[in-house]
Amino acid sequence: MKALKIIVIALLVYAGIVTAFESLIGYFQPAQPGSTIALTTFDSSGTPHDRVVSKLESDGQLYVAANHWPRAWYHRALANPKVQATIDGVKRDFRAVPVTGEEHDRVQSAHPHGLVFLFLTGFPPRYFVRLDPPQ
Predict the structure, then answer these.
(1) Where do the domains of the chain lie, and which CATH numbers do they carry?
(2) What does the DSSP 8-state code read for residue 89?
(3) What gap in Å lies between CA 128 and CA 1, rounded to an integer?
(4) pLDDT digits (tens, 9 = 90+) for 75-98
(5) CB of 98 within 8 A of CB of 78?
């Protein structure tokens, strides 16, 4: 019974660490010229929502990744793929395309996360969106 209590307490402490880290990074995540972009997604009523995300490039394509458990921006981009991205101070229109299969594996291997990051974020699944020019 004592071992079970220790395990439960350890899991609760770990959940607290993940929650605190995710909350703080969501609040304090800085925009770093060249490595981040401000992604604007739109909800079902057309209201814009901005989120700073890391800019990833692979094989001449532009990607962003849902790297954390909070990922409302990702679900909005899937529901309404007409998004905007502010890159180096210039806002442009894009079409968000979900990435799967070999393309996902290629981008994942080109931009891996370290074990410390994965631990602090609670080992979330990682999803990619390719930002294509609008059609």
Answers:
(1) 2-132 (2.30.110.10)
(2) T
(3) 43
(4) 999 999 999 999 888 999 999 999
(5) yes
Q: What pairs with residue 132 in β-bridges?
A: 95
Q: Identify the residue whose tokens are 């931009």.
A: 111
pLDDT in tens, 104-132: 999 999 999 889 877 887 888 899 999 99
Residue 53 three-state SS: strand
Place of tokens 């631990």: 119
Measured distance CA(91)–CA(89) in Å, rounded: 7
The pTM (predicted TM-score) of the whole model is 0.78
What are the start-end ranges of the H helices in 29-125?
A: 72-79, 101-110, 115-120
Tokens matching residue 132: 């294509």
Among residues 75, 66, 72, the alpha carbon closest in space to that of 104 is found at 66
Q: How many Cβ atoms from other residues are within 10 Å of residue 76's Cβ?
A: 22
Instruction: For residue 135, give the 3-state DSSP assignment.
Output: coil
